[in-house]
Specification:
mainly alpha, 83% helix, 0% strand, rod-shaped, membrane, transmembrane, transmembrane helix
Length: 77
């Protein structure tokens, strides 16, 4: 497998991961902030922790996206 093909796969995977983590973050934020009265305190605490974790995974996906763009010779944005 050449570097070009590898870069395209990496870019597609990173883009998909960014979308997935963004959607999950929005869902967890809605549950943690919009419906917090419906859940026990421990569940709300876990939801807040998940917000931090998902934000970190989103940022990691963005870094992988930048690496893939660099491999493909695309401008970094």
């Amino acid at each position: 497998m050449n570097q070009q093909s590898s870069g395209h796969k990496l870019l597609k995977g990173a883009n998909s991961a960014m979308v997935i983590f963004l959607v999950l973050f929005a869902l967890v934020a809605y549950l943690a902030w919009g419906l917090e009265a419906q859940f026990p305190l421990m569940v709300v605490a876990v939801l807040h922790f998940l917000q931090i974790l998902l934000a970190g995974l989103f940022k990691l996906s963005y870094v992988v996206r930048l690496i893939a763009q660099n491999q493909l010779g695309q401008p970094l944005r």
